[in-house]
Amino acid sequence: MEEILASIKRVIAEDGRAAAARPARGSRPVEAPRPSPPEEDVLELSDPVTEGDGLVSDDAAAASRQSLAALSALKERSETAPAGDGPLEGVVRDMLKPILKEWLDRNLPEIVEELVTREIARIVGKSF
Fold first, then answer.
1. What is the CA radius of gyration of the chain?
2. DSSP H helical segments within 1-86, as ranges?
3. Residue 41 needs a FRET pair 20 to 30 A away by CA distance; which of 34, 60, 63, 114 works?
């Protein structure tokens, strides 16, 4: 905690010095010497993990590899398929087909009749 506070105080002090070193308007900037950055502690990992020291069991690792391979294969398949033809789009399309067919069967004849009547009226110049 003390190190963090000391680091914050150091940054504030450096900012104060930088503000004081800024030239006034119209004057030439004076190059102030830059303080060298403080040396930081570096964590070095000198004890590598070996195969026998795994964090998961062999069964869990194999199951994970299999799941990731399936996901990768699915991604590769979706990249080669045309855009908008993924698994979700296919499910939605299959769900919407019967709904759309029913709506078109019920409404399309009336829509076409109304549009044809309007077009004939426009061409002839009379309203029906």
1. 36
2. 2-21, 58-80
3. 34
d(CA 20, CA 23): 8
| Angstrom distance (rounded) from CA 104 to CA 22 | 74
* Residue 122 in tokens: 């426009």
User: Is pTM beyond 0.90 here?
Assistant: no
Instruction: Let me know: does 29 contact 23? Beta carbons within 8 Å.
Output: yes
Under 8 Å between Cβ of 14 and 35: yes
- Write the pLDDT tens digit of every residue in 45-62: 676 666 666 667 788 888
Kindly write down the DSSP assignment for every residue of 34-47, as one continuous string.
Answer: PPPPPP-------S
- Tokens at 93, concatenated: 């399309």
Instruction: Please write the tens of the pLDDT for every residue from 60-98.
Output: 888 888 888 888 887 776 666 555 567 888 888 889 999
- State the Cα–Cα distance between residues 98 and 92, nearest whole angstrom: 11
Q: Which residues contact 120 (CB under 8 A, 6 or more apart)?
A: 128
Distance CA(77)–CA(67), nearest Å, equals 15
- Which distant-in-sequence residues (6+ apart) come within 8 Å of 54 by Cβ? 61
